[in-house]
Amino acid sequence: MKTLFLLRHASAEPSDGDDHARILTPRGREEALQAATWLAALAPQPALALCSPAQRALQTLDAVHARLPDLDVTRDPELYLASAGEVLDRVQELPETVDAALVVGHNPGLAALARSLPGEAGDAERALLVTFPPAALAVVAFPTDGWPDLAPGRGRLLGVRRPDRDR
């Protein structure tokens, strides 16, 4: 069994021309801590994280890494604004020894991938994937031993978490 965690970066400052350098807002820092708390409470926990090199994604991952210090982290430049297919390509290349992995990235690619992977999900769960706001987390399990076998429609949605938007 392989488990994939898809985490959109938390809320970031507007762009001032350098999109890579955008940092988290105070609200975004709170969202990142909330996502880190969710991940730390789950089983299995990710052993490896692939992260976009954009500052907002790295800061989101920093919060997670503080809660999961054994997480092996790889900055992956291919994840910066990657499409769903590009993200899936990167995941399919993960080492077979890793059973649970986290991807920290961007919309619209991450949201599109989260919507495409589950073969079975209830209407309420699918509704949560329609909007994939900053710091949203989707967890999808696959009945396979190989990352190359991951494909749209083959996963089972274990859950979707979205930050408390009422703060």
Fold blueprint:
Blueprint: E1 2-8, H1 26-41, E2 48-51, H2 55-67, E3 72-75, H3 84-92, E4 100-105, H4 109-116, E5 118-120, H5 123-130, E6 137-142, E7 155-161
Parallel strand pairs: 1-4, 2-3, 2-4, 5-7
Antiparallel strand pairs: 1-6, 6-7
Helix pairs in contact: 1-2, 3-4
Task: Report on the architecture of this protein.
This protein is α/β, with parallel strands linked by helices. It has one domain: Phosphoglycerate mutase-like (Rossmann fold, 3-Layer(aba) Sandwich), CATH 3.40.50. It is 32% helix and 22% strand. The protein is built from five helices and seven strands. Strands 3-2-4-1-6-7-5 form a seven-stranded mixed sheet, with helices on both faces. Helix 1 (26-41) crosses helix 2 (55-67) and helix 3 crosses helix 4. It is globular and about 40 Å long.
Annotated CATH homologous superfamily: Phosphoglycerate mutase-like
Number of helices: 5
CATH topology: Rossmann fold
Identify the overall geometry. globular
Short description:
The protein is 32% helix and 22% strand. The termini are far apart. It has helices at residues 26-41, 55-67, 84-92, 109-116, 123-130, and strands at 2-8, 48-51, 72-75, 100-105, 118-120, 137-142, 155-161.
